[in-house]
Amino acid sequence: MKYMMLINLGSEARDWKTLPKDDQAKVAAAWQEFNQTPGITPGNQLQPPETATTVRVQDGRTLTTDGPFVETKEALDGYFILEADDLDAAIEVASRVPAAAMGGAIEVRPIVEW
């Protein structure tokens, strides 16, 4: 089964520039190693939520709003795709995402396959 892993870095990892250089190097190495895990299709890191534009269509008109529509404490910072045997295997992989140990969270969501 395929899972979309939605990454919330958390404030510590999101504030990358304030981390000591040694910690930055450890986190970067952990991500490089993590991306070699079988079944992972690496995704991308996203720009901060305030750079987003939300698009809606109402009465045939396209409406845009700067930033996310709702305030949230957990923002989507990145993602990757995982092919795993089951949810337990996906949870194990999610627990190894470096951000998960730095105050972040990983949402594990099954992908609908047609």
Describe it.
This protein is α+β, with helices and mostly antiparallel strands. It has one domain (2-110): 2-Layer Sandwich (Alpha-Beta Plaits), CATH 3.30.70. It is built from three helices and six strands. The chain has helices at 10-14, 21-34, 87-94; strands at 2-8, 40-41, 53-58, 61-66, 78-83, 105-110. A four-stranded antiparallel sheet has the order 2-5-1-6, with helices on one face. Strands 3-4 form a two-stranded antiparallel ribbon. The chain is flat, with a radius of gyration of 16 Å.
Task: Write the SSE topology.
Blueprint: E1 2-8, H1 10-14, H2 21-34, E2 40-41, E3 53-58, E4 61-66, E5 78-83, H3 87-94, E6 105-110
Antiparallel strand pairs: 1-5, 1-6, 2-5, 3-4
Strand order across the largest sheet: 2-5-1-6
- Assembly type of the chains comes to single chain
Give the class-level CATH name. Answer: Alpha Beta
Distance between the termini: 12 Å
Question: Portion of residues in helices?
Answer: 10-25%
Number of helices: 3
The main β sheet shows up as: 4 strands, antiparallel
